[in-house]
Amino acid sequence: xxxxxxxxxxDNFYASCERAFNPSLANRPVIVLSxxxxxxxxxxxxxxxxxxxxxxxxxxxxxxxxxxNIAVFSSNYELYGDMSRRVMEILAGFALDIEIYSIDxxxxxxxxxxxxxxxxxxxxxxxxxxxxxxxxxxxGIGSSKTLAKxxxxxxxxxxxxxxVFNIVNHPDIDHLLEGIPxxxxxxxxxxxxxxxxxxxxxxxxxxxYAQDKWVKKHMTVVGLRTVWELRGxxxxxxxxxxxxxxxxxxxxxxxxxxxxxxxxxxAIAEYASRAAEKCRQQHSAASIMQVFLTTNRFKEEPQYFNxxxxxxxxxxxxxxxxxxxxxxxxxxIYRPNxxxxxxxxxxxxxxxxxxxxxxxxxxxxxxxKSQKLMRVMDQLNSRYGSKTVQVAAAGTRKEWAMQRNMxxxxxTTNWNEILIVKA
Length: 423
Ligand SMILES: [Mg+2]
Fold this sequence. Notes:
This protein is an alpha+beta fold. The chain is built from 13 helices and twelve strands.
């Protein structure tokens, strides 16, 4: 049976958070600046219409700010993090499963709601989020995550449709896909943009009808999955996504419910290590970490969802440091007497690890030493198989780990599981 996903995306998130607490901003253009008030990192719709690009240095738009009486804010990550938590908490109550995709976006799995009027259901989600947080959201619904992303783009374009756009039973999806340039397709991005255009594929409809064999040859199986997703065949489950631009997420459902803080700490330490590894692989470092946990919404038992945001003193990709913060975070939000189904780490505000701005009051004295240690750890793990060396905090027995009893060996990434041919 076809799946149904909704992508819920907060509109102009940082700017809307500022508005939520200041009614006088309702009709006033708003911008939010990056660390040290350097560049514009969020704009209200009015500012977008003035064509102020994202990342514009603040000094360049001072005149405009004066002329249009734009309200300017330094970034307040504590506030945005907490608002994000509130939004996610509300969303978690509306779906069987949720994937926090970035600080202001989440995928909801709505398979169980197919008999409801999905448009009405989405409108209700919007109402609740707005009422509970003051933040407007846009919702796109589709039969794959990639199509939900497409729908969300249309929801943003056609505000009059009530900021909800459902393409599950749309009579002319091809026409909609035609309006999406290839570089805007989720998971295609800059990597394939030029290549596809060279081959005459300029929009999502053209990619949808490209031949499987050709796609697989030039864009690997990852690209093929995207194409199938455009055709409405869901290939990406929740928590399975092309590399997000805005952050790195590691989250997984447990093999069995976790009921103790000790086990939860192990799980979260493991996810933090994995996220740190991903971060190092792409030569980046994170400035902000979100940690979340949730119970199982499928079961009729007491439910709990929480999420905490930690602003890291210095952007980092250090496993030991990230694990330490993750454990502190989970200790703060963990409540006993619940059966937890899932937890995760989300790293955001990613910067290039080669030019990290060091903090004068850096409280981590081992930074340089630790970087060497990370290099050695990564080398060992890539040579002898992942998890050859890992932090003890992640536990050794991992009884909570995902059940994958029928998983084949990691033939290509673990020496101990290599294929043996007996004569
Ligand atoms: Mg957004």
